[in-house]
Structures are given as structure tokens and as C-alpha cells.
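ingest -> validate -> predict -> emit
validate: passed (alphabet ok, no gaps, 410 aa)
predict: started
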Amino acid sequence: MSRIAGRFARVEPRRRVRDLVLGLLSDLPRKNCWSIAEWAGEATPDGMQHLLGRARWDAGAVRDDVREYVLEHLHDEGAVLVVDETGDVKKGTHTVGVQRQYTGTAGRIENAQVAVYLVYAGRRGHAAVDRELYVPRSWTRDPDRCRAAGLDEDTVFAIKPELAARMIGRFLDAGHRAGWVAADEVYGGNPKLRSALEERQVGYVLAIACSHELTTGAGKFRADALAAKVPRRAWQKLSAGAGAKRHRFYDWAVIDVAEPRPGSRQLLIRRNRTTGELAYYRCFSPDPAPLNTLVRVAGSRWRVEETFQSGKGLAGLDEHQVRRYTSWSRWVTLAMLAHAFLAVVRADEHARGPTPDGLIPLTCNEIQRLFIALVVRPVREVAHRFAWSAWRRRHQARAGHYRRQAANQT
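emit:
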């Protein structure tokens, strides 16, 4: 917390932001301004709501502090920047960026808010270092709606690959080096993102659709047509990295792509050893890269799913109940910080020495349990609990739907 203390001019928000981050790391069944304020010993949630919505501090500067914290502790020369989006299902139409759209969280089209994240994935661990809210066209075409949600009236629509390029640019402009970027088909099929990475001499392994066309020495072909031409002897069995239980082995093949520009370009093909299902990746590197390096980078993409899972499950990344952009950006930035803390502690514990026989290495989940039991959990008096019960009931009595229910009963 001392890393971000200088971003807050007064002692009250410094203390309150510490309580909020500790609340995000707690074992509360639901994490929002109300529950965290009660847990932290405050009389009402007004202070937490003020911190997120109206207090003077720069969430972008704190985001930069989170990035520096992660890079300092998880630095790896072979690290991969992984880009992906995740959605939070919402009700109503007022939450910033919400509309009916596909989200992988639900696996279908839902009323949801979607954000794109940049995850730093290395051998020591992985954590999110940047975030951008996806603002649909239905919002950018309505300046009044943008203004009401705290967005600039001149907010311009940007597709997800453009948001990814924006975050990668911030990472590189801060003076950091990243040899590789990995992402799914949404990003691999975008030529502007690929060109931006090539101009900055950043390698990539980006998933593409089977219908994606590539140019070889023999002409232009669809990715699946090129895969059909691969001879049996060209496939190699390699691990895409360790999964939850064991290494993920696939068959891999690579085909050179011909383009009249500097750099090495390939089509990487992955084949499931059980089902035969194929996946395709478009690859670039300033200098030729061996197959096992391309496979390692492709396998790093799963780290973003692990980051989302632990960020939501352990640090409340998706539990914000805020409508305006300022509050959203502040909440997710502090949740990123909370999760980064767990990832750093895990990395330091793993580096401390070998795990004792009969135990698995410490996980973020277990570190959180120990941290809650030994450091975080406060003891509150019964009077404090009753006071919060009364506050909730008074607040609910003022809500319109409760008043309507009371009127109907009389």
C-alpha cells in the first residue's frame, strides 16, 4: 500500500483505500461498498462510495503503480503479454458500457459489461497490468448517455484490438520490454494490431480462424487448406505448458508465410491428439524463432483465464456494483492490485525453497486463506453489527420498491 500512498493527498483516503483493498482480499461472500464498509468498521458505506466516485485521485496513476509492482517481482525475460476480454452480466441499461452482447463468462449473448485486460505472464507468475472498458457504439452515439455515466462526451468507439494496442503501447512506452504477445481470434484477425506489433518489433502468436488467408511461396491459401498439406512427418508432439493436473500435449506443425517485409512469419497449427481438432495461429518474430518457442507462447494464453478466475474469485474483480466509469476504473484497478499481491507472495514463496514432501506448492487460494486468518480478519463488536442491520433496513425502507410493497399491503 505504500507504493500507491502518494497518489492520495489526504490521510483519510489513504486509510480508506487500504481498508478497501483488504476487504477485497477478505472472505466476504459478496464484496461491494456496503459489505466492505461494514467489514471495515465504518458506520455507513458513504466513505467507500466517496472514495470510488468523488474523491480526488488518479486511477491511471495507480494502474501504473500496479504494473511497476508486478514487473519488479514477476520480471521474466521470456514473459508474454496476453490480451483477452471478460464480461460481467448486468441488469438494466445505466451501468457504463452495458448492452446485450456476447460474453464468454456466460457463454452466450447477455446484458453485460465487457472489459479488455493485459496480463503479464512469466515463469514466476502472472497478473493483470492494464485494463480498458469496451464502450459499444450504442453508447458512443449517445453523448448524453456517455456524460451521465462519467464518460467524455467525445468518447470514440474503439474495437477490442484497438484497446489491446492502446494497452500494449502504454506498457512499451513506460520503458518495459516484451518479446511476445498472445491473444485469441478476435485479435489475431485484426491486421492493424498485427502491423502495430511488427512496427515495434514485438513478436506475436495470435489465434486465427480456419478461414483466415495467408500467403506462402505457392500462393494464397486458407489456414485449413494449408493444414491439409502438412505431411505426417512434419508434426511434433510438444507440451503447451502444465495444466491443473499434467502437461498439455498436442501435435504441432509450422509453415512459413511469405511477405515482402522484414521479420519471420509462420502459420502455427495445433492438433488435439485425441479428437484431431485443429487450431491455427499467425506468428511473427523479428528473428526466426524455433517451434518450441512458438508453442510456449501459444500455451501462455491460458494464463489470462487463470488470472480472470483468481481475480474474480479471490479479489472481487467482477463484484463491483457501480454505474459510472470513474468508479468502475477505480474498483477494477484496486482489485488488480489485490490480486497482484497474492501473485507476488506466491512467487516469492516458491522462490524461497523447495516445497516440503507431501505438500503441493502454495497457491493464491491458500495464501489468501492464511492471510485472512493471520492478518486481515477484524473483530467487530455486536453493537456494530446491529447498527449496520438498522442502517440497511432504513436504506431499504427509503427505496421505491419497498415503499410500493408497503402501500400494497395496506
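The longest strand covers residues 108-121.
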